[in-house]
Target: Diaminopimelate epimerase
Amino acid sequence: MSISFIKGHGTENDFVLVPDADGALAGRLDEQVVRRLTDRHAGIGADGVIRVTRTETMAEFGGLADDAEWFMDYRNADGSVAEMCGNGVRVMARYLWEERLVEGPVLALATRGGVRTVHGEPDGTLTVEMGHAKPAATRQLSFVAAGGRTWEATPVWVPNPHAVVFVDDLAEPGRLVEPPELRPPSLFPESANVEFVADRGRKHIALRVWERGVGETRSCGTGVCAAAWVAMRRDGAGVGARYVVDVPGGQLAVTERPDGELLLTGPAVLGLRGRVNL
Ligand SMILES: N[C@@H](CCC[C@H](N)C(=O)O)C(=O)O
Model:
């Protein structure tokens, strides 16, 4: 069987988009297929796969169909399913707009983490309403270890799990070939993405990220929100603050609305299109 695909990225966090409006490919994108599609040597190469389908085709999430016609069915490069992808949701919105599958400057997209609203900005960037960040229910200390060093971490869910660590220098964690160790593991029952964050100036941070199910990537939208949210609290920034976040693949901005909703603003780019044999 051959399927069509579109390659896209948001600050170089890259994805293979698989159009599947009627849900015919549900169940076909198993771990083996996703690993082949995302393989950078033997496949197309990407951090994740996004099956673009109608929400009504998603049995478990069909209840969201009244609020959002389209569903982002997201998988990490290792085939695992994730609740949300802040860069992927912008790329999928860009695809739906370019294909004229949706109209108007505001688009609601369903995800496993709930419905996310995407706004097209006059400068061509996209802003996503990312929901509220949630801290851990316990005050238990948590740590991340990597490259022979250990840092205290702040766990936060957006809504996927993140461990945010402040470092003096982004080189401190080393090459990040192995997954950082999360301690205690019981605080992260579904593992976590890890953000190593350094200050760059007032309301300006930079980060490296280890993505659960992928490895080190050049950006992570939910991770950028998690890091900015933790930095805002550390700095006593107050609601309405806007933080600029440098990632290896570019720059994003996070604003906290007075009601606590996090807004993520950044680019979304579509590239190569083709067909691939599964
Ligand atoms: N790159 C994404 C996050 C993708 C999911 C993540 N790896 C997880 O398993 O939680 C983003 O831009 O948010």
